[in-house]
Recover the amino acids of this structure.
């Protein structure tokens, strides 16, 4: 069964990653994921975009990432690929505004899988909430080179407006260009957590980067 309180707690540090963020190496990707989880990542999302993996190789990568999540009690999401999420028995699936309709996603994954939706405006956030989304990813917070489809930055002020519109119950994670230097602004604006790619994947120590982000989230 879905546990909204656990989701909110685990979303504090939300790591989005695929082989394209780790030199197109499965081994390096898993090494970074392992370190990040040890450092305090509570939610991991497999987002393998533009990689050279076959469907079976992507499934195997997801299976190994999911196993690492289970070792640390982290929540495991799959980005966009509803079929892969179902095949893996993932904890959640995250879809964008241009992907499948929320009702169709729910029909495909069943009642017990978390569904996250990207939202960049109050209208999109309210629609996601009304449609039964379990959480929303709000962004892009800042300019980012890690996610080509992130769109123009909307900033913490827009996140604050979304939080006021949806109320306190819906878990929100900010995403897009978030670093150790600006993460506190995102939490202060009303996010429950920060979703990052390069802040962890490109860090000298993914474990230390994750731990530092967790400390920031908890201190705001």
């Amino acid at each position: 069964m879905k546990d909204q309180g656990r989701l909110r707690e685990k979303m504090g540090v939300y790591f989005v990653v695929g082989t394209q963020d780790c030199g197109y190496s499965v081994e390096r990707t898993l090494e970074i994921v392992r370190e990040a989880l040890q450092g305090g990542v509570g939610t991991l999302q497999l987002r393998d975009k533009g990689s050279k993996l076959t469907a079976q190789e992507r499934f195997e990568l997801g299976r190994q990432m999911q196993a690492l999540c289970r070792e640390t009690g982290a929540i495991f999401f799959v980005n966009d690929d509803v079929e892969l999420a179902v095949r893996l028995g993932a904890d959640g699936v995250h879809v964008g505004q241009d992907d499948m309709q929320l009702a169709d996603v729910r029909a495909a994954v069943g009642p017990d899988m978390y569904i996250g939706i990207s939202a960049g405006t109050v209208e999109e956030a309210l629609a996601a909430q009304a449609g039964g989304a379990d959480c929303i990813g709000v962004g892009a917070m800042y300019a980012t080179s890690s996610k080509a489809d992130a769109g123009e930055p909307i900033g913490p002020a827009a996140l604050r407006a979304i939080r006021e519109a949806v109320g306190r119950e819906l878990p929100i994670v900010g995403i897009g260009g978030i670093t150790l230097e600006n993460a506190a602004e995102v939490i202060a604006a009303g996010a429950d957590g920060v979703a990052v790619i390069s802040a962890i994947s490109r860090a000298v120590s993914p474990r230390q980067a994750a731990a530092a982000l967790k400390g920031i989230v908890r201190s705001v």
Summary: Residues 4-214 form a domain with the TIM Barrel fold (CATH 3.20.20.70). The chain has one domain: 4-214. The chain has a mean pLDDT of 95.
